[in-house]
Design a protein that fits this description.
- It is built from 4 helices and 4 strands, in the order H-E-E-H-E-E-H-H.
- By secondary structure, it is of the alpha+beta class.
- The strands form 2 sheets. Strands 1-2 form a two-stranded antiparallel sheet. Strands 3-4 form a two-stranded antiparallel sheet.
- About 25% of the residues are buried.
- About 30% of the residues lie in helices and about 20% in strands.
- It has 2 domains: about 80 residues, no CATH class; about 45 residues, no CATH class.
């Protein structure tokens, strides 16, 4: 984590386009995405399209440590990415097999990618 903090704030850092040196969107704005996961408790935090922040991964860590909201609950952090938007978590589809979507406790859903697993189980039952 600390290794990356320096390059996130350095706009001139060679071929590594993260943080302030990252590519701008079509409107010329710097918008950063980041995700972090810890393997012991399967904690997960993700943010997307953050503006005015050079260390998006630090924001994702704060989301992982401090927030339980993934959708319309009050108090959701701006930029918080929930399970609904992530393939394998809130939805998954394979034209050859089928598709799945789910709802419930998004923070738990993020840990296990149940929609991906459901489609894989469908695939196994075909063989």
């Amino acid at each position: 984590m600390y290794f990356f903090s320096g390059i996130e704030d350095d706009e001139t850092y060679g071929p590594c386009v993260v943080g302030r040196g990252g590519a701008r969107n079509r409107m010329g704005h710097l918008e950063l995405d980041a995700a972090i996961m810890e393997g012991n408790e399967l904690g997960f935090g993700a943010v997307t399209a953050l503006r005015g922040v050079s260390r998006a991964v630090s924001v994702a860590r704060r989301v992982m440590e401090k927030s339980v909201s993934t959708s319309g609950k009050s108090g959701k952090y701006p930029g918080r990415v929930g399970d609904s938007a992530l393939p394998g978590c809130g939805l998954y589809a394979d034209n050859k097999i089928g598709g799945a979507c789910c709802t419930g406790d998004g923070d738990e859903i993020l840990k296990y990618c149940p929609c991906f697993h459901a489609v894989q189980l469908m695939k196994q039952s075909e063989t």
